[in-house]
Write a structure and sequence with these properties.
It contains 6 helices and no strands. The chain is mainly α.
């Protein structure tokens, strides 16, 4: 019977394999950084439809649309994927903060997930 330590190590190694696969939702490319600009036109409240479509296209290209749509669900607290999921979601939050006007950015800054921001913006401007 394997001991718990070996099982944990194997689980972590499997999780790390996901992070190296560019097709996996939890993959972050070395060029991905919090200051990346997703779209050229910031959300100003009046351009929501075109802004949303532009952001969706950019997030699809980065394989991160699932974070804002809620299809890339947050793993359980004990999952070895949780830390990487949180890193990816915080990256998406940063991209969204840089894709909106300063006044809007200030109002979403303390949101806990990118999904929460996405729903808030949809409710306010959609």
């Amino acid at each position: 019977m394997e001991n718990n330590s070996n099982v944990q190590t194997e689980t972590i190694l499997q999780a790390n394999t996901f992070f190296q696969d560019p097709s996996h939702d939890l993959f972050l490319h070395p060029s991905d950084n919090p200051n990346n600009i997703l779209v050229s036109d910031l959300l100003n409240g009046k351009n929501y439809g075109t802004w949303k479509k532009s952001v969706e296209i950019a997030l699809i290209a980065k394989n991160k649309l699932g974070f804002v749509l809620g299809t890339c669900a947050k793993p359980d607290a004990t999952s070895p994927l949780l830390h990487q999921w949180d890193r990816c979601d915080k990256m998406v939050i940063s991209w969204l903060l840089h894709a909106v006007d300063k006044r809007i950015s200030d109002s979403i800054l303390f949101s806990s997930t990118s999904r929460q921001i996405w729903l808030d913006l949809e409710q306010r401007f959609g």
